Amino acid sequence: MSRLPPALQNLSLPVIGSPLFIISNPKLVIEQCKAGIIGAMPALNARPASQLDEWLHEITETLAAWNRQHPDRPAAPFAINQIVHKSNDRLEHDMEMVVRHKVPVIITSLGARTDVNDAIHGYGGVVLHDVINNTFARKAVEKGADGLIAVAAGAGGHAGTKSPFALVQEIREWFDGPLALSGAIATGGAVLAAQAMGADFAYIGSAFIATEEARASDAYKQAIVEGTSDDIVYSSLFTGVHGNYLKPSIRNAGLDPDNLPESDPSKMDFGGGESAKKAWKDIWGCGQGIGAVHQVSTAAAFIAKLKQEYARARERVGVPA
After folding, report:
1. Distance between CA 160 and CA 182 in Å, rounded?
2. Are 204 and 223 within one domain?
3. Helix, strand or coil for residue 157?
4. Which end of the chain is more exposed for a tag (fewer CB within 10 A), N or C?
5. For residue range 202-233, what is the model confidence (pLDDT) as tens digits?
6. 144 and 31 in a common domain
7. d(CA 286, CA 235)
8. What is the rounded distance in angstroms from the CA atom of residue 127 to the CA atom of residue 232?
9. How far, CA to CA in Å, does 46 sit from each of 54, 89, 220, 243?
């Protein structure tokens, strides 16, 4: 395994809850961290922008109180996702907030910038950058990212097309820093498999949509429970970048999920306005791992299930506890 900075050590399970656009919120992040995994949310989920300051205060103070009350079971650190794309007109404001609150982990997406990384390193924060191929991985590290999130085929949202075996293998040939793997991971066995391939962490998103704390509609959560990998479609139509989405939501929008036109990156818009939310509000992002999700539960219950599955998987393959 790789060298890990202190903020990424001592988790109760090697999992990062991926930041879910619109869906992640302080309640979900706090429950993830209290259960011992890194909880994350996009800065853009706080709307208006002024709400981000309030949310960061809530998360920081709640986790600090938890740690005082449970010194034997301290919470994992939390992470904030920053969209480093030119259309994100909130980036400067949101960076000021994460620096003010000294957010332990920052996840950067859709671009890598040295100035952003330098600002986070200035207070001792850790930067993880998500990538869909080895070329982008090298660029991210060259610009100062501490670690990488390999977004492989089958991941929810803006997923890549690389096999997780190929992507992790290529990155590990030259990079020994923190590495998380994303792509259809929804069981404890899959978490162990990610580690066996060379990743330090599993990056889990879609399964957390079907939790009570997630800010998703009941219909969205139920679609996760009822769906399988056959219900996922890979398309660039909705944001200009290819991603995985639930077919039922596409049909509900009056479109044929099997005959969608293509779009292009020029259509990307991560500005602060409502237009940036529209596609993600009506068209439900989702990864291919949802066949393992059979009910809506609390985040704590789902993480407890992951821990049990992880322990059983280690025993099954003879990995010492």
Report:
1. 10
2. no
3. strand
4. C
5. 999 999 999 999 999 999 999 999 999 999 99
6. yes
7. 12
8. 30
9. 9, 14, 20, 23
Bridge partners (DSSP) listed for residue 130: 149
**Alpha carbons 11 and 192: distance in angstroms, whole number:** 14
**Based on C-alpha coordinates, what's the Rg of the chain?**
18
- For 232, the 3-state DSSP assignment is strand
What pTM, to 2 d.p., does this model score?
A: 0.93
Residue 107's nearest CA partner among 86, 83, 75 is 83
Q: 197 near 281, Cβ under 8 Å?
A: no
Q: Helix (H, G, I), strand (E, B), or coil: what is residue 147?
A: strand
CB atoms closer than 10 angstroms to residue 57: 14
Q: Same domain for 192 and 258?
A: no
Give the structural domain span for 86.
Answer: 10-212+297-314
- For 245, other C-beta atoms within 10 Å of its C-beta total 26
- Say yes or no: 241 and 118 in one domain: no
234 secondary structure, DSSP code? E
Does residue 119 sit in the same domain as residue 191? yes
Burial string for 64-81 (b: 16+ CB within 10 Å, else e) reads eebeeeeeeebbbbbbbb
Are residues 194 and 249 part of one domain?
Answer: no
The reported pLDDT for the residue numbered 282 is: 83
Which of 50-59, 153-162, 260-269 bottoms out in mean pLDDT, i.e. has the lowest? 260-269
